Every structure is written in C-alpha cells, then in structure tokens.
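Reminder: ligand-aware prediction takes two inputs, not one.
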Amino acid sequence: MRCYAGNPNRGGVAAASYKPLSSVWDGEDNELIEKMLNFYPKRPPRRILDATVNRGRFWIGSDRWVIGLDINGHHRPTVIGNNMKMPFRDGAFDVVVYDPPHIPNQGRDRLKDFTTRFGLGERSPKENGYNFSHFYGPFAAEAYRVLKQDGILLCKITDYVHHHRMQWAHIQVILAASSVGFQPCDYIVKIRKGPIIDPRWKKAHHARRRHCFWLVFRKSNKCE
Ligand SMILES: C[S@@+](CC[C@H](N)C(=O)[O-])C[C@H]1O[C@@H](n2cnc3c(N)ncnc32)[C@H](O)[C@@H]1O
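Here is what comes back for the chain with S-adenosylmethionine:
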C-alpha cells in the first residue's frame, strides 16, 4: 500500500481556536478538504480513506496519511478495489472521502481528458435511469461499516441534466447515506471555474451548473 505522506499518528493538534467555515467555496478541492478535516471531526483524524482516489488530486500538498482506493489500477491507487465491497475491516477509518463518477454516457472529450479525470466515460443503463444512483447505496453501506463511530463521510457530488431530466445526484446520495444510518449534517457549495458542457448542447433550457456540493455526513445520530 502506498501512503501519500505523513504518519498515521500525526493526529495534529486540536484546534485551539474556532475558525468558522463558509458554506460557499470558490477555491480548490484540496484546500477545502484540509479545512473540512480541521472543522468537522471531533478529534483530529488519523486514518483517512479516499474511496475514489483516481490520481489523488485531493491530496496535493497534503501531509495527511491517506489510503487511496480505486477500481481502476491504471491510476495506481494505494489499493485497487471496489468501494461497494471494500477490503478493509470494520471501523478502520476516521474519515471517508467519496467523489464518484458523474454524468454518465457522455461522448469522449479528448481535449479535456474528462473521461479519465472525471469518470465521464462510465455508462449507466436505462434500468438505472441513466444515472449513477445505484452505486450510492452499496457504497454508503460500506462507508458506514469501515468508519469508526462518529466518523465523517465527505462526498463531492454534482447534479446534472441528462436524458431530458434533472438528475438530483446530491439528493440521491443524501437518501442513500441516511438509509444506512448516516446523519446528513452539512453541505458546502463549491463554485466551478466554468460549467461542464457537452459541446453537442449549444442551447439548453436549464441553468448551466456552475457548482457542485460537498456533502458532510457523520456516523452518529447527532451532527455535533
Ligand atoms: C471523479 S473520479 C475521482 C477524481 C479524484 N477525486 C480526483 O480529484 O483526482 C472517480 C474515480 O472513481 C473510480 N471508481 C469508479 N467506480 C468505483 C468503484 N466502484 N470503486 C472504486 N473506485 C471507483 C474511477 O475509476 C475514478 O478514478
């Protein structure tokens, strides 16, 4: 297994002073994650799982001890595996981070390399409503299992229009996580530099999505 950096006993020093966190973020994900890791856990997190690590962009510049899981060995994760059947013991982690593929069944955009970077090449059949909601329940059950009591689940989720319907991915994730016992506690709206646009759709009668959500769950019956 590969550690990105740091030492599992790092823990960090408990925040001596309270620093509020804004519900709108227009910076990079890695900077926001560091702020969330200092804000939500009751104790400084020692063991973190990135359950969709890809190339590990969330941990650029971080000295946190992170295990990166990905189903695609091409990305060279710490562990190659399926986050709907995780190869980890119960209660192994303080924090799980999830950034699933979004916007299925798109054409390939080689210029932006979206297929490998954002999972836009993934397919979803008609029976699943051409969306990825069928992933969320099995993932949430596993995230709940591998988190310690009071552990935090951070999910980056994008709503989008597909198959002539709004795909309410963030609501589907909230429902899936709640149904396995997570407490939905908070969300942060992350502003994108620009919307993700399929070049085939020059005119659309919905607002261009310029944001995604970071949803925050706790393995607890209380948020705080
Ligand atoms: C949107 S990308 C994550 C990008 C990453 N957060 C980053 O910023 O670099 C989604 C990743 O999830 C992985 N993935 C898809 N299904 C998975 C599964 N069932 N188990 C583990 N990883 C999966 C894909 O291979 C892809 O690398």
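Helices lie at 29-39, 114-118, 133-146, 169-179. The CA atoms of residues 118 and 145 lie 26 Å apart. We will return to this case in the review session.
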